[in-house]
Amino acid sequence: MSETKTFPMHLHVWESIKDDLHYGAVVEWTKIEELSEIPRLVHNVVNPKFAFFWMQLEERLQSCGFFTTQRGMNERGFRVLHREEIADHVKKKLSQQNRQTKKMVVGMSVIERSGMKSEDEKKLEFMQTKSSFIHEFNQRLLRKRELPDHATASKGFERLLKERRG
């Protein structure tokens, strides 16, 4: 009989593995499946329940400084990145998110607005403009080799917006 778990499963698994984690650690899926009592694969497809659980666990790992990759693991599990790998990993993820934002901006730009209620059209236009600003700001920031001075993030943002305006 398995033990009773009194908190969300990802926290139970975190509590069970945290003492064994270190940068470069490899964690097998079988161990995670055993601790969570959730099978990772069902009919050779990732179980949606496991995928949601993994998303929560990965978020917990990151909040504690452990960034993970499944790359090169051949479906065996995941590896905790070495500290020296994390900056490149984060830059890659931020670039992916920014490409996704750009796709949303482009997608919103081709939506036919005729026949839309004025309120809905304004909401769509607002989100397209907002997403466009986010994409442009992030793109400029990702390209910079030096950040604006460290006074505050908002001052740096204002400075980048001034550059945009000319």
Number of DSSP strand runs: 5
Main sheet? 3 strands, antiparallel
The low-confidence parts are: none
Rg value = 21 Å
What gross morphology would you assign? extended
Helix fraction, binned, reads 55-70%
Termini separation:
68 Å
Q: Can you give the mean pLDDT?
A: 90
Structural domain count: 2
Q: How many alpha or pi helices? A: 6
Instruction: Quote the beta fraction.
Output: 5-15%
* SS class: mainly alpha
- Give the topology string: H per helix, E per strand: HEHEEHEEHHH
Spatially, the strands of the biggest sheet line up as 1-5-4
What does this structure look like?
With 166 residues, this protein is mainly α. The chain folds into 2 domains: 9-80, no CATH class; 84-165. It is 60% helix and 8% strand. The protein has 6 helices and 5 strands; from the N terminus they run αβαββαββααα. The strands form 2 sheets. It has a 3-stranded antiparallel sheet with strand order 1-5-4. Helix 1 (9-17) packs across helix 3 and helix 4 packs antiparallel against helix 5 (118-143). The longest helix is centred in the middle third of the chain and has 27 residues, at 83-109. The protein is extended. The termini are far apart. 8% of the residues are buried.
